[in-house]
Amino acid sequence: MKIQGKMFIWLSFFILAMAIVYGLWSKEPAGTTALFLAFGLAIMIGYYLAFTARRVDAMAQDDKEADVADEAGEVGFFSPHSWQPLSLAIGGAFAFLAVALGWWLLYFSLPLVLIGLWGWVFEYYRGENQNQ
């Protein structure tokens, strides 16, 4: 976290310098204000990361001798065989198409969306995948 904090703090100083140069050169208030707000956002994030880095243990990115695999962990669980996203995608496509073609198309898209959503939520509560 120390590295990210330093990066955001340096980025904020760069944005501040560019905001000053842009403001003096262009005399345009909207872009100058946006750059000063971006400076404030970057300095807040940098301060938070630097402040938090002092209170947590050192992570792998803080060690110059660390390998990529040192911080590796479980990414998550992904269902490789689920057909439910296909039903949701087709139902969502019909629902968005209903805006262009006519609202009557929602009568066909709503059951597809509901079946896909119900199946996706309860996919691991029944059938062969119940104990996963």
Topology:
Blueprint lengths: L1 H25 L2 H25 L30 H18 L4 H16 L11
Helix pairs in contact: 1-2, 3-4
Question: Would you give an account of this structure?
Answer:
- The chain has 132 residues and is mainly alpha-helical.
- It has helices at 2-26, 29-53, 84-101, 106-121.
- The protein is flat.
- The model has no long low-confidence stretch (mean pLDDT 88).
- Helix and strand content put the structural class at mainly alpha
The stretches of 5 or more residues where confidence is low (pLDDT under 50) are none
Number of strands: 0
Q: Helical stretch count? A: 4
Q: What gyration radius follows from the Cα positions, in whole Å?
A: 25 Å
Tell me the β content: under 5%
Which assembly state applies to the chains in this document? single chain
What is the helix/strand order?
Answer: HHHH
Amino- and carboxy-terminal Cα gap: 34 Å
State mean pLDDT (0 to 100 scale).
88
**Overall 3D shape:** flat
